[in-house]
Design brief:
This protein is mainly beta. It has one helix and 14 strands; from the N terminus they run E-H-E-E-E-E-E-E-E-E-E-E-E-E-E. Strands 2, 4, 5, 8, 9, 11 and 12 form a seven-stranded antiparallel beta sheet that branches. A four-stranded mixed beta sheet has the order 1-10-14-13, with no helix packed on it.
């Protein structure tokens, strides 16, 4: 069995449901050893993950789109509806949108309009098609759709238990796949305070080398690193 320093828990709520403790102590430590055999510690760390919570609040202001048809032609008039601001989205559950027709000339051209369904391409784009009869006078079709304001809250989870960086040993970090970011905050024995962002499957530093990733669990990955003297 390879020597492993600790299993770092990133996400306390997740580990509560796992059949494993938050910290797994290296079994080699339980064996009697002389001071000369003790591993060299280059620092201690905690693991912290960052989560992003998204909330949507209904707005009174509706998104609007319109199109016009020229006189005397049979054609399709397509409306594009987009949100009114960068931090708003369309309410894709809105099934109350009723298109409005405005005659631009002539005698009741709106009577010759056939409405297609409102189709949400995404939360930021909806389309609706209208067919105007041949010989119809010009008109303008308008559709309004409810909107929601999107707000994101970024917060750090509580740090994991502090663990040592023992030279020549391995340690694991549990990274939730739902987290926006994960990092190690470390106090080094030389007095430096270091932050190591965990990005993909890269080394954290010349002394903290990536070894492997275990993705057997559906909600988190186990990242293994080696402490290089």
């Amino acid at each position: 069995m390879r020597p492993r320093a600790t299993l770092v828990a990133v996400g306390i709520g997740l580990l509560a449901s796992l059949p494993m403790p938050a910290v797994v102590v290296d079994h080699a430590r339980a064996q009697p050893r002389s001071p000369a055999d003790a591993p060299k510690t280059i620092g201690t760390c905690v693991a912290i993950q960052t989560t992003v919570t998204t909330s949507e609040t209904p707005l009174g202001l509706r998104a609007e789109g319109s199109c016009e048809s020229p006189r005397g032609q049979t054609q399709s008039c397509i409306i594009d509806v987009v949100p009114t601001a960068a931090d708003t989205v369309l309410d894709v559950t809105d099934n109350t949108a009723v298109p409005q027709c405005l005659a631009l000339a002539g005698n009741d051209p709106c009577a010759n309009v056939q409405n297609g369904p409102l189709i949400f391409q995404s939360q930021r784009h909806a389309t609706q098609m209208f067919t105007v009869g041949f010989g119809s006078d010009p008109l303008r079709m308008t559709t309004m759709v409810r909107q929601k304001r999107v707000q994101q809250t970024i917060a750090d989870s509580p740090p994991s238990a502090r663990f040592p960086l023992n030279a020549g040993r391995l340690f694991d970090v549990l990274r939730n796949r739902s987290s926006a970011a994960t990092r190690l905050e470390c106090s080094m024995t030389d007095g430096d305070q270091r932050i190591f962002p965990i990005v993909g499957e890269m080394d954290l530093s010349p002394n903290l080398r990536f070894v492997s990733k275990n993705s057997a669990e559906p909600t988190f990955d186990i990242l293994t690193y080696r402490v290089v003297p």
